[in-house]
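S.,

As promised, the zinc ion run. Input:
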Amino acid sequence: MKSATYKQKYQRRIEKYAAVRGGEVLTTYESSTAKMRFRCAEGHEFETRVSQMLGRKTWCPICGRNAAKKTVLAKSWATLQKIVQKKGGTIVSDVSEYRGLSSRIRVRCREGHEWTTLAMSIRQGKWCGLCSRPGRKYKPQEYLQSLFRKAGYKVLEPLTQGMKGRYLVLDEQGLPKKISPYQVIYALGKSRKTIEKQYL
Ligand SMILES: [Zn+2]
Ligand SMILES: [Zn+2]
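Predicted complex:
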């Protein structure tokens, strides 16, 4: 039988161990192989064998798992950032909303198109649907820019909505108007194909 003073000494040692970590001991020390109950600073309660805890310098298993998960998420997010930056885009969503590759994130391409997609898709190399439409041989903004220029318009806003947008321009007389790329093509009296061939 171990003496009461030994047990008290051990109890104090454990209490100190818990206090250093902002937690507390909820049970009394009986033996090094018996389980004791603790509460961590986050309020998680857990049971563990004291000898193991002191020997391996472990603490709350729930906090441990959360910390590990955070590290994994941070790494996964950093990888996504790298992929998106390489393509000249930005992630619009905040890292705090990120829960892993099955999360939906909002992304903006270099042309200013925004869309929501699974983080997994970005990881797999998928990118802006508007920019990567099959058969698209031109950079949308540059194409639109040259189209408006050809028709004598001065564009006053970013051409970020592709062919479907209506953009504020100044016409040859310097008057402002809202006009779509299709109207410009129509005004030029040419087909879109011809224009793409001629000017790009
Ligand atoms: Zn905890
Ligand atoms: Zn795009």
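Residues 109, 111, 113, 128, 130-131 surround zinc ion (ligand 2) (CB under 6 Å). The chain has a mean pLDDT of 88.

- D.
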